[in-house]
Design goal:
About 45% of the residues lie in helices and about 15% in strands. It has a seven-stranded parallel beta sheet with strand order 3-2-1-4-5-6-7, sandwiched between helices. The protein is an alpha/beta fold and about 240 residues long. About 45% of the residues are buried. The longest helix has 29 residues. It starts with 6 loop residues before the first strand and ends in a 6-residue tail after the last strand. It contains eight helices and seven strands.
């Protein structure tokens, strides 16, 4: 098993990509700590769920203190939301909320985990970006801004966390259209339009993103850092 003996922390792990990744990591032997805004229950003995608001710095500080017994080997910054609107109609609250969850939460968590990985001499951080951060999308200026920013953070952290010789790798994954709960609510006609935008002619499954995250978390990617892995079925935008 590729993650035997490793400890992973996943934010936004209550459903969708986070849940799929937690299960994939657990299958590979990791002890998985999952945080989300909602109460979490997993059937896996090696998955522990925690209710946490990752935008609240005091709560994050207390949470990190409560899990100090664990040496975090892998961090997956997955927490994210959408509040879509044309920019001219976007409210301040819609903008601020997405920035807070999608970007500030990365700062709050990684501020603790990154330095500890440097002290431990090794670690892997995977930030979940999006195809929207690469290409933009009408009605998602706030979301696109956060996901584009993740590329800069990823490359900067890759340089900073390894600069003193620690084997700390930082990468990002940019999913395309994936069959999560949000996509399932889209009308069939629109969904078919998304499928036609891909070279493979279909939307992806959460397990396919989880596999990409697993690759970057494991030693299989031991010489990859500062990289963005697009997993989008060959989007043609």
């Amino acid at each position: 098993m590729r993650l035997e003996g490793k400890v992973a922390l996943i934010t936004g792990g209550g459903r969708g990509l986070g849940e799929a990744t937690a299960k994939r990591f657990a299958d590979e032997g990791a002890t998985v700590l999952v945080v989300d805004m909602m109460p979490l229950t997993y059937e896996y003995k090696n998955v522990k769920g925690y209710e946490l608001d990752v935008t609240n710095r005091e709560d994050v500080k207390m949470f990190m203190e409560s899990i100090k017994e664990y040496k975090i080997d892998i961090l997956v910054n997955n927490a994210g939301i959408t509040r879509d609107s044309l920019f001219t109609k976007m409210t301040d609250d819609m903008w601020d909320k997405v920035i807070d969850v999608n970007l500030n939460a990365l700062y709050n968590i990684t501020k603790y985990i990154g330095p500890h990985m440097m002290e431990n001499g090794k670690g892997s951080i995977i930030n979940i970006a999006s195809i929207v951060g690469e290409f933009g999308n009408i009605g998602q200026a706030n979301y696109a801004a956060t996901k584009s920013a993740i590329y800069g953070l990823t490359k900067t952290w890759a340089k900073e966390f390894a600069r003193k010789g620690a084997d700390v790798r930082v990468n990002s994954v940019s999913p395309g259209f994936i069959m999560t709960d949000i996509i399932k609510t889209i009308p069939d006609e629109m969904l078919k339009g998304f499928e036609k935008l891909t070279m493979l002619g279909r939307v992806g499954e959460p397990s396919e993103i989880a596999n990409a995250i697993l690759f970057l978390a494991s030693d299989d990617s031991s010489y990859i850092t500062g990289h963005n892995l697009s997993v989008n079925g060959g989007m043609r935008i």
